[in-house]
Amino acid sequence: MSGSSGELLGSDRDRFVVSTKYTLTMDGTDPNASGNHRKNLTRSVEVGLERLGTEYIDLLWVHIWDPNTPIEETMRALDDLVRAGKVLYVGISDAPAWLVARANTIAEFRGWAPFAGLQLPYSLVKRDIERELLPMASALEVSVAAWSPLAGGVLSGKFTRSGADGSSRVDRSAVSEGDLTIARTVDAVADELGVSSSQVAIAWTRARRPWIHPILGARTVGQLTDNLAAIDLELPDEAVGRLDKASAIDLGFPMEFILDTTTDFVHGSSGKQVDGRHAG
Q1: Helix, strand, coil percent content, the chain, rounded in steps of 5
Q2: In whole angstroms, what is the distance from residue 97 CA to residue 99 CA?
Q3: Considering only CA atoms, which of 25, 26, 92 is closest in space to residue 65?
Q4: What are the tens digits of pLDDT across the range 71-107?
Q5: Cα separation of 230 and 223, whole Å?
């Protein structure tokens, strides 16, 4: 937690949503200064409120799952801060689906504030969360903040277009040929639509799931302006299909087994007569 939203936002504070995280160590020599336990949470929030120059945090993220702290302790401590008015909503970043589902079930039965959002990596070159986390988020009606929607710049055209913006968080040697193939498909769709590659990649994250909100990591005003334009870009179904095919992943067990066998194995011939439910 750093910076001062008070200085930046001034009297308009209530018109903005201020979020921050806790979990990571504030003092590497002190085991009490890290993790998801109550002590670190309380200290982190108090320090954060002072540094941010605000009386409350709109959305507090648990930065990552801490296996050393019982999730019951974390949820109760978070709820205490919500009840005290120091935090309005809570979310969690980088945690397995089973843990989030368990945490929100505990919160529901005990009347505590549940996780309202998840912060997860999601892009055309990293679709792992489609296996468990996105179906869970859909079922529990939890929004998703998608970090690195451009895969560290890979999907911006950085490595596939001549004269592209040189900034990237990924070294070229670490980019696979498969990722470059996906990036070239993004470039082709962008050229056909007359928009930038970045806009296509960002728009894809929301194409079928409007409750996914990409986190933009622009380094210049020009990049930010370009990325923000993705909110108005509605990709044609054909383009979404091409991008999906180019970046497809195996869902693995159990989802592939369930999806491939449910109709005939469970319901028999009558299964084809039922529309069924769609787990987003």
Answers
A1: 50, 10, 35
A2: 5
A3: 92
A4: 999 999 999 999 999 999 999 999 999 999 999 999 9
A5: 11
